[in-house]
Amino acid sequence: MASSTATTSLVVAGALAVPLLAKSLISKAPTRTTSIPKNQERVVVIGASSGIGSELARIYAHRQAHVVLVARRQALLESLVQELSPVAGSILAIQGDVTLPEDVRRITLESLRFLKGGVDTLILCAGMISVLPFADLAGTEKTSAQPTRDDGLAHLLPSNPEAALDASIKIMNLNYHAPLNLTSHFLPALTQTSRAGNIIVVSSMAGKLGAPTRSIYCGSKHAAQGFFDSLGMEVEKTGVHVGIVSPGTVETDLRQSAVDLPSSSSTDSSEAPKATGTKRGAMSARACAEGIVRGSDLRQHEVIMPWFYHVSLVLQILSPSLVRWLAKKKYGYLK
Ligand SMILES: NC(=O)c1ccc[n+]([C@@H]2O[C@H](COP(=O)([O-])OP(=O)(O)OC[C@H]3O[C@@H](n4cnc5c(N)ncnc54)[C@H](OP(=O)(O)O)[C@@H]3O)[C@@H](O)[C@H]2O)c1
């Protein structure tokens, strides 16, 4: 009975998803490259030192665009500049931490100075993940310790709530507050200096659906989804477009710098907790970056990658319990 309901849901979801997918693939929207030729586009890529961001840098540089690359790891940025200088229209690396307000102001001014006072495309790609179950992070497991203080209730308190709060503040600062702050800094220039300004935020399917072991990551990406979705409607009348990109798993080193894993230098790696979840079926960083650039050229409001996640979103309405079952299966949470 349950399996026939699941099959029916899948068939209906597929039938509903196909027209949506076809519409996004054969979009008739005039490409933005008509008003901004590829070799005149002025692009700022935030989070350009590795993974998806470094592939975005390569694509724009090979289109001979004028590109600014931003991240904290200066050496990686410099080597990208060296690699791409021969092909880019022009290219600059700016080292900075986008969670620091003073760095965001400096990054904005240095970018605009380099790009001769204007910008067309801001790509917000810097981000971090979380990979531990929330209960493990906060230490909410049942302890065998005898109650000794706090009216005998101490055993009912978590052992490490500070770690959970600290991780949440860090991830929100990078995945939500930094893109918001960068947006407010670049918005005047996008509005006043571009024929078709674009803000493209690299969110995630974690901004649309929940997943076990990814609770604080999902929280931060859902917040970004809500903010940029609303912002897009607010600024549309100024000519600025906001696009939200939601990839599934991408083949990058994102998990290595997870906010809730100890840094590899500070622990014996055999004892350190490990990230769960499979990378099976992951798309390449290159394919993801190509999808992001296509979405920006077509000024698509939503880019969902790979295509089959459209089915998950339709299923989320038709049969949320099936989507929960699939997510729990992926992360090994089926009882
Ligand atoms: N990989 C996936 O499966 C996947 C799936 C969906 C969405 N995404 C999203 O894609 C985006 C890029 O991730 P990725 O997979 O390409 O991982 P990545 O290689 O770890 O890229 C993260 C980028 O963010 C930069 N960054 C981190 N903290 C920063 C800070 N405080 N200031 C400035 N830059 C900072 C990093 O550079 P520095 O360390 O040099 O600062 C790096 O360039 C993220 O927003 C992620 O959530 C990834």
TrEMBL record:
UniProt GO cellular component terms: membrane
Residues that span the membrane, as ranges: none
Keyword terms, alphabetized: NADP, Oxidoreductase, Signal
Protein name: NAD(P)-binding protein
Residue ranges, annotated region (Disordered): 257-282
SUPFAM superfamilies attached to this UniProt entry: NAD(P)-binding Rossmann-fold domains
GO molecular function, one term: oxidoreductase activity
Domain of life: Eukaryota
Sequence similarity: Belongs to the short-chain dehydrogenases/reductases (SDR) family.
Protein purpose: Putative oxidoreductase.
Signal peptide as annotated in the record: 1-17
PANTHER family recorded: DEHYDROGENASE/REDUCTASE SDR FAMILY MEMBER 7B, DEHYDROGENASE_REDUCTASE SDR FAMILY MEMBER 7B
